[in-house]
Design a protein that fits this description.
Layout (H helix, E strand, L loop, with lengths): L3 E6 L4 H14 L7 E7 L4 H11 L5 E6 L1 E4 L2 E3 L3 E6 L4 E8 L6 H18 L4 E8 L6 H12 L5 E3 L13 E3 L2 E3 L3 E8 L3 E6 L3 E2 L4 E7 L2 E5 L2 E2 H10 L11 H5 L4 E5 L3 E5 L1 E4 L5 E3 L8 E6 L2 H14 L7 E7 H7 L5 E2 L1 H10 L4 E7 L2 E4 L5 E4 L3 E6 L2
Parallel strand pairs: 2-3, 8-9, 23-25
Antiparallel strand pairs: 1-6, 2-6, 3-10, 4-5, 4-25, 5-24, 7-12, 8-12, 10-11, 13-28, 14-22, 15-16, 15-22, 16-17, 16-21, 18-19, 18-22, 20-21, 23-28, 26-27
């Protein structure tokens, strides 16, 4: 019995694309769907997406968000709609929408934790996972994570990633059971009678010497050690005998040389460096810890793909009908050049999962979850695989 099937549409009309993708996903199931996971790229009217899904599957619970790209059927789609339909007696999906993450992200994270805890306390299950989909443009996803952790501690296992757009950093939306919001959080609580395996990897290794964050304002890293952030970054690269990036070439160089925040004995949580500002500050994708230690990291195409396979392999040994993939959009820029077509990331994930597991997901603005079994964090430039055993 097939319990999960995907559908996709590239129709330029959002409502038509959502309806077609939903019908295609439903057609592959052995019975009606219990839940629909919906990812749409940002050029569509979000209300049209919700209306199209409702037209194809009236009354069926659904949730999702606008994203930088959809990972579906071995492809990366930067303009289209992807739908995963699930009909599984051993899985229970409950989705909640939390508003106001753009006003107070920390408090919204607390409310997302409360919603998750309420659902988890209400039912019997062997394993559970909460997928968080925060607005990563107008809200602060790090503060969302901090608020969630403040309320729930380590009692709720987390996965997911930030809703986004096609690298415009303008606006994005979340969907939940027919509602549309911008600046919110979708929390999807999945309870299972069997194992849910989750793993996150990035493929970057420490390269430069440790440096202390001396001045930071949100996403803007101003000073490292004794100087402005850019000068210290350049000095760290020079110390390794390498040619350091100019201001003009910095964004491209930093794609494979992000900052790493030490996490545990040998782990690093990544922060992508985006651009050099006039005063030598560096704009990053998300917050860095004040007075924390960072290192310049290094990766290449091969190490990124190896990490994707490792994440899939580490997500569990059990055979699985489907898996969810949350991969940073910055990885796609390196691996696929932000072009439509076969996804090198999904191919590497499928190598680790095996040919019989359906892989479905999206390009995230940051990832949410645990690195090597440690506490949940907000990550950059990482790939996460969630494997749902039969």
């Amino acid at each position: 019995m097939k319990i999960a099937h995907d559908g996709m549409s590239l129709d330029p009309d959002g409502r038509a694309a959502a309806e077609a993708a939903t019908r295609e996903a439903l057609a592959g199931l052995s019975r009606g769907a219990d839940f629909l996971l919906v990812y749409s790229t940002d050029k569509y009217d979000p209300q049209g997406i919700v209306d199209g899904v409702a037209a194809a599957a009236p009354g069926t619970p659904m949730a999702g968000c606008q994203v930088a790209g959809v990972l579906v059927r071995g492809q990366v789609v930067h303009q289209g709609v992807g739908v995963l339909a699930v009909a599984a007696d051993h899985l229970r999906f409950d989705a909640r929408l939390v508003r106001g993450a753009n006003d107070d992200s920390f408090e919204a994270g607390i409310r997302a934790a409360d919603a998750s805890l309420e659902i988890l306390e209400a039912g019997d299950h062997a394993d559970a996972l909460t997928i968080l989909l925060p607005d990563a443009i107008s809200g602060n996803a790090v503060d969302v994570m901090n608020g969630f952790a403040e309320e729930a501690g380590s009692s709720v296992r987390l996965a997911g990633g930030g809703a986004g757009d096609a690298l415009a950093f303008g606006k994005t939306h979340q969907f939940c059971n027919g509602e549309v919001v911008s600046g919110g959080i979708v929390a999807i609580v999945i309870r299972s009678k069997s194992e849910i395996g989750v793993a996150l990897e990035h493929g970057c290794s420490p390269w430069g010497q440790p440096m202390r964050v001396r001045s930071v304002a949100g996403k803007v890293l101003r000073q490292l050690d004794g100087g402005d952030a850019y000068s210290q970054y350049v000095e760290a690269v020079h110390a390794l005998g390498e040619e350091a990036p100019s201001r003009e070439s910095f964004a491209e160089f930093a794609m494979l040389h992000p900052f790493g925040i030490p996490h545990g004995e040998d782990g690093y949580v990544l922060r992508s460096a985006l651009q050099v500002m006039e005063d030598g500050a560096i704009l990053c994708c998300s917050d860095l810890p004040s007075e924390g230690v960072v290192r310049v990291m290094r990766a290449d195409r091969g190490s990124l793909l190896t990490a994707a396979t490792k994440a899939a392999e580490s997500s569990g040994a059990a055979s699985a009908p489907f898996a969810l993939v949350h991969a940073c959009v910055s990885r796609d820029l390196v691996l696929s050049g932000f072009a439509d077509g076969p996804s090198a990331e999904l191919a590497a994930v499928s190598e680790g999962l095996g040919p019989d597991t359906l892989a479905f997901g999206f390009l995230t603005y940051g990832q949410i979850g645990s690195l090597h079994g440690r506490g949940s964090q907000f990550h950059s430039k990482s790939v996460q695989v969630c494997r749902f055993a039969a």
